[in-house]
Write a structure and sequence with these properties.
The protein is mainly alpha-helical. Helix content is about 70%, strand content about 0%.
Length: about 280
């Protein structure tokens, strides 16, 4: 299940619209989702079935990724993650929330994540790009460790939700990677997306290990002693919620890197050239 904090009730959504652009995007996306949720409730589809359907569709998206059909994979992922989002909402509305449902949902989420990364690993292996096979494999490993670190930490402490790169961010980033950049020459920025997922996943795992250590040993959360260190701790020991100004600023920085970094700088397996900079010379 993808817990998009942007997809809240109408009052919360209206508040988000007035404050952040990520909140606005979430509120807009929620309008068609409400109709799908109502339809699922009317048809009496069990939330666990919705979860399974979402995973199976994501496997199809992974196959499309493995064949290099990025846009097709992106469209299939959108369909898959509609099911991934609405299962929890349907469970609440139909009063079918259960501990097994939470376990089922969390377990199948890992299958979905691994399937998408395996699709990319297969693609890069077929292109004989062992460097990006490793990048995708490491991104997959640290993505799985993010979930494991939180689950293990929360068996010891009350809550461990620190770190920026959670599952919703990974899914949205992969969506961005499978569609052409909005800037000419409209390359697919998947290589840049993988580097963002890998680096921020490493930081997120570290954040959760560090945070758990601090809580278990009754130590204070580091905040920095001057303006520069405060910004660094704020950015790389992430504790802010979504739909906040700091979150939006991080999103802008990430999108700038993804869309403006020349493919040649990343030795991109599926794109080449200097990207948008070729048109500015």
């Amino acid at each position: 299940m993808i817990y998009y904090d942007w997809f809240l009730n109408d009052e919360d959504a209206a508040s988000s619209i007035s404050m952040t652009f990520t909140g606005f995007i979430g509120a807009v996306c929620m309008f068609p989702l409400r109709a799908i949720i109502r339809g699922s409730v009317a048809l009496g589809i069990h939330p666990n079935v919705l979860t399974l359907i979402g995973v199976l569709i994501n496997v199809v998206a992974a196959i499309a990724l493995g064949r290099g059909h990025f846009v097709l994979a992106g469209v299939i992922m959108i369909v898959a993650n509609i099911f991934d989002f609405i299962d929890g909402k349907v469970a609440h509305i139909t009063n079918t929330v259960s501990r097994f449902g939470a376990f089922w949902d969390s377990t199948l989420d890992r299958f979905s994540d691994i399937a998408l990364f395996l699709g990319l690993i297969y693609l890069y292996a077929s292109l004989r790009r062992t460097d990006y096979v490793m990048v995708a494999a490491l991104a997959m490993m640290f993505s799985i460790m993010i979930s494991y670190a939180r689950a293990r930490a929360e068996s010891l402490i009350d809550k461990c939700k620190v770190g920026f790169m959670e599952r919703p961010e990974r899914i949205v980033l992969i969506w961005i990677g499978v569609f052409p950049s909005p800037f000419p020459p409209f390359n697919y920025p998947m290589a840049a997306v993988l580097w963002v997922i890998l680096i921020l996943s490493i930081f997120t795992v570290y954040n959760r290990i560090h945070y758990t250590y601090l809580v278990l040993n009754n130590k204070p959360i580091p905040t920095g002693s001057n303006a520069i260190t405060r910004v660094m701790w704020r950015a790389f020991f992430w504790r802010d919620e979504r739909t906040t100004l700091p979150y939006d600023l991080w999103v802008i920085v990430i999108l700038a890197f993804i869309w403006l970094t020349p493919p040649d700088w990343l030795n991109d397996p599926t794109a080449s050239g200097l990207g948008v900079w070729e048109f500015l010379r």
